[in-house]
Amino acid sequence: MGTHITEPLPTPRTPAGRDGLAAVVSRPGAALVGLDFDGTLAPIVADPEQARAHPDAVPVLAALAPKVAAVAVITGRPAEVAVRYGGFAGVPGLEHLVVLGHYGAERWDAATGEITAPPPHPGIAAVRAELPALLDRVGASHGTWIEEKGRAIAVHTRRAPDPQATFETLRAPLTELATQHALIVEPGRLVLELRPPGMDKGAALREFARQIGAGSVLYAGDDLGDIPAYAAVEKLRTEGVPGLLVCSGSEEVTELADRADVVTDGPEGVVRLLRSLAALSAP
Predict the structure, then answer these.
(1) 9 vs 30: CA distance, rounded Å
(2) Is 211 exposed, middle or buried (0-12, 13-18, 19+ CB in 10 A)?
(3) DSSP state of 59
């Protein structure tokens, strides 16, 4: 990896985490590496449209992906957007990479460049039409930003005068709006996302692990939407599949850090961890 120095792997703080890391390192060809995008591979920014993968993420993944069973980027974003912002398309070495967008409702395969997906939920169009009036009605239109996600829609409060207060003000009315249209609300780091029920990162991770027959699973995330993926890894452990939980640490969300086996210093730390795994793993 050029002039980068490969650091030693961290020691997970739990026995299950140590077993998970040992399984990934000893049998990389059977390992599934699951990664969130925003906050894990890409630094959090005020404008989600400006989010881009850490500059070392793609070369590190290109070094790691050929040595493991698969790398899956699991994100609430549309798959096409994550592929574009991540710079994953057409990269030699990433043939074993998939992007599971919209919490697994969409799938992009690097090997083919194709996206497969079901039709959008009708509730999204209804919510899209009603959201501006709702924001005006509760006095939260100033500084909030609506992100169109195709199969979901998100309201960001990071640019509001009081981001956390605006976030809390919007939770109840957005939950009510979502319920009216058979949707759910997924809270995140100063963002509330309205999306269809029944699919989350945990379900996406478990199904993909089953499809490829993963012998071990590493999952790295940073936000509340990653908790179902953590739960999926914990469930897989009880079924005999070793797993490692990695948190891309931040001061905004602490729930994942409390459950993680390894906490890194944000996307930079995640990249360093993946670089060390790539250096230790035999093809």
Answers:
(1) 19
(2) exposed
(3) H
Q: Which residue has the tokens 């792997």?
A: 9
Integer Cα distance of 31 and 70 in angstroms: 7
Strand partners, 245: 219
Q: Quick one: average pLDDT of 127-149?
A: 91
Dihedral-angle region of residue 183 (phi above 0 means left; psi in -120 to 50 means alpha; beta otherwise): beta
91-122 per-position pLDDT tens digit: 999 999 999 999 999 999 999 999 998 888 89
Whole-model pTM: value is 0.80
Dihedral over Cα of 158, 162, 164, 167: its sign: negative
Give the mean pLDDT of the chain.
Answer: 93
- Neighbour count for residue 10 (Cβ, 10 Å): 17
Look at strands 216-221 and 243-248 and give their pairing. Answer: parallel
Model pLDDT for residues 240-279, shown as the tens digit of each residue: 999 999 999 987 778 899 999 999 999 999 999 999 999 9
> In terms of C-beta density within 10 A (0-12 exposed, 13-18 middle, 19 or more buried), how is residue 259 classed?
middle
Instruction: Report d(CA 108, CA 83) in Å as an integer.
Output: 8
209 contact partners, CB below 8 Å, separation of at least 6: 32, 217, 232, 236, 241
Q: Is the dihedral of CA 50, 60, 68, 224 positive or negative?
A: negative
For residue 2, the model assigns a pLDDT of 42
H helix and E strand count, the chain: 9, 12
Closest to 143 in 3D by CA, of 121, 124, 165? 165
3 pLDDT above the threshold of 70? no
Phi, psi dihedrals of residue 193, rounded to the nearest 5°: -110, 130
